[in-house]
């Protein structure tokens, strides 16, 4: 990589890593897997930097999405992780909040991969429909219909008792 390109890439990584790691975490639901996903996406981005340097964030997001879909399809995805020692710290009673999170997480996991990705990109990343369409390689109309169907199914799966007012 040319020194100017190396500098541009380094600046991009420095300025956008926080946002990209949050997206990776939402896609993976695991900090270590999120770091691996982002590292893989940045390595692929670096290899194509010369070609994509005009809009690198969209490229990284697209790579992360496709990489994670591949991992979801892998038979090893979703296995339990063994901890050496259980955590010893107690926490305050947040049962209601935890129940809502668990219900919502289960409902999200029950959604098909594309519908889950649409919700993450639209509502967690707060991307416009046109950007989501570019990342997912589909039309804006498809994003709209997938979003509508995903929210409706999420509400059915999570039940009306879960507060999903933010998802419209």
Automatic annotation (TrEMBL):
<keyword id="KW-0731">Sigma factor</keyword>
<keyword id="KW-0805">Transcription regulation</keyword>
<protein>
    <submittedName>
        <fullName>RNA polymerase sigma-70 factor, sigma-E family</fullName>
    </submittedName>
</protein>
<keyword id="KW-0238">DNA-binding</keyword>
<dbReference type="InterPro" id="IPR013324">
    <property type="entry name" value="RNA_pol_sigma_r3/r4-like"/>
</dbReference>
<dbReference type="InterPro" id="IPR014284">
    <property type="entry name" value="RNA_pol_sigma-70_dom"/>
</dbReference>
<dbReference type="GO" id="GO:0006352">
    <property type="term" value="P:DNA-templated transcription initiation"/>
</dbReference>
<dbReference type="InterPro" id="IPR013249">
    <property type="entry name" value="RNA_pol_sigma70_r4_t2"/>
</dbReference>
<dbReference type="InterPro" id="IPR036388">
    <property type="entry name" value="WH-like_DNA-bd_sf"/>
</dbReference>
<dbReference type="GO" id="GO:0003677">
    <property type="term" value="F:DNA binding"/>
</dbReference>
<comment type="similarity">
    <text>Belongs to the sigma-70 factor family. ECF subfamily.</text>
</comment>
<dbReference type="InterPro" id="IPR039425">
    <property type="entry name" value="RNA_pol_sigma-70-like"/>
</dbReference>
<feature type="domain" description="RNA polymerase sigma-70 region 2">
    <location>
        <begin position="15"/>
        <end position="77"/>
    </location>
</feature>
<feature type="domain" description="RNA polymerase sigma factor 70 region 4 type 2">
    <location>
        <begin position="103"/>
        <end position="154"/>
    </location>
</feature>
<dbReference type="InterPro" id="IPR014325">
    <property type="entry name" value="RNA_pol_sigma-E_actinobac"/>
</dbReference>
<dbReference type="InterPro" id="IPR013325">
    <property type="entry name" value="RNA_pol_sigma_r2"/>
</dbReference>
<dbReference type="Pfam" id="PF08281">
    <property type="entry name" value="Sigma70_r4_2"/>
</dbReference>
<dbReference type="Pfam" id="PF04542">
    <property type="entry name" value="Sigma70_r2"/>
</dbReference>
<dbReference type="GO" id="GO:0016987">
    <property type="term" value="F:sigma factor activity"/>
</dbReference>
<keyword id="KW-0804">Transcription</keyword>
<dbReference type="InterPro" id="IPR007627">
    <property type="entry name" value="RNA_pol_sigma70_r2"/>
</dbReference>
């Amino acid at each position: 990589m040319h020194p100017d390109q190396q500098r541009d890439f380094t600046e991009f990584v420095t300025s956008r890593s926080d946002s990209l790691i949050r997206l990776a975490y939402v896609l993976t639901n695991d900090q270590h897997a999120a770091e691996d996903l982002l590292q893989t996406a940045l390595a692929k981005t670096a290899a194509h930097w010369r070609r994509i340097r005009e809009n690198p964030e969209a490229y990284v997001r697209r790579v992360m999405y496709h990489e994670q879909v591949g991992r979801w399809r892998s038979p090893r995805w979703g296995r339990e992780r063994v901890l050496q020692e259980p955590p010893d710290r107690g926490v305050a009673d947040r049962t209601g909040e935890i129940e809502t999170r668990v219900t919502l997480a289960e409902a999200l996991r029950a959604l098909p991969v594309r519908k889950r990705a649409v919700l993450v990109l639209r509502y967690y990343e707060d991307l416009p429909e046109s950007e989501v369409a570019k990342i997912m390689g589909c039309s804006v109309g498809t994003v709209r219909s997938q979003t509508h169907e995903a929210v409706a199914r999420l509400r059915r799966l999570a039940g009306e008792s879960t507060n999903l007012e933010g998802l419209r």
